[in-house]
Amino acid sequence: MIPKMVFFTKGVGKHKHDLQSFELALRSAGIEKCNLVNVSSIVPPNCRIISREKGMKLVKPGQIIYCVMSRNKANEPNRLLGAAIGVAMPKDGDSYGYISEHHCFGETSKKLGDYAEDLAATMLATTLGLEFDSDKAWDERKQEYRMSGQFVRTQSIAQTAKGDKNGLYTTVLAAAVFLEG
Predict the structure, then answer these.
(1) Which residues, in sequence order, are bridge partners of residue 85?
(2) Whole-angstrom Cα distance, residue 120 to residue 147?
(3) 3-class DSSP state for residue 27?
(4) How far apart are CA 25 and CA 11, in angstroms?
(5) Where do the domains of the chain lie?
(6) Is 83 a residue whose pLDDT tops 50?
(7) In 3D, which of 74, 100, 86, 70 has the Cα closest to residue 174?
(8) Fold type of domain 5-179
(9) What is residue 165's three-state secondary structure?
(10) What percent of the chain is helix, strand and coil (3-state, nearest 5)?
(11) N or C: which terminal CB in the chain sees fewer CB atoms within 10 Å?
């Protein structure tokens, strides 16, 4: 199986039981009715990024779907937790891209997303054997990285939440969901 499409989703769930908190986060992300298989981080060549809305229309209950997922949980009141997925895709559609997962405590959504994008771009560059410094390669105006003459677009999805004030488990997740098309 080589995926033809990928979409990004995120969710948060709170419950007194850890597992049910995770289930509610999956529901929030819209992928609770799927059988999820966690995979690593390569976006195949010519794999199109589609909207969550379009992707959800293609997902059927019970379907086995492959995804890259970042998740985090806590049952500490008011603790800020987050999970993010970043992707780096060469503009040349015939090349593969890279996905990163990042989860942590105490970071804003923006910081989580930026870190996940930098991580994905760095991993893509190193796997291609390219010299890369994320601080120097970023073109703010074009919103893309430049790696040894190649342009790479990045994007991310991040979910943050504060731990429930009454100590319920809080779970956050972000996922890149692959579809065959």
Answers:
(1) 101, 157
(2) 13
(3) helix
(4) 5
(5) 5-179
(6) yes
(7) 70
(8) Pyruvoyl-Dependent Histidine Decarboxylase; Chain B (3.50.20)
(9) coil
(10) 25, 45, 35
(11) N
Which residue is listed with tokens 């994007």? 155
Q: For position 137, what pLDDT does the model report?
A: 56
The pair of structure tokens assigned to 102 is 């990042």
Pull the structure tokens for residue 54. 């379009």
CB 9: neighbour CB atoms within 10 A? 23
- Encode pLDDT of 128-148 as tens digits: 776 666 665 555 444 555 555
Tokens coding 20: 């049910």
Residue range 146-164, pLDDT digits in tens: 555 666 788 999 999 999 9
Average pLDDT, the chain: 90
Tokens of 74: 């806590």
Dihedral sign (CA 133, 48, 181, 59): positive
Alpha helices in 11-154 (DSSP H): 18-29, 52-58, 109-127, 134-137
What value does the mean pLDDT take over residues 112-116? 94
Q: Which two tokens stand for residue 139?
A: 């073109």
Average pLDDT over residues 109-134: 84
Q: 154: which strand partners?
A: 88
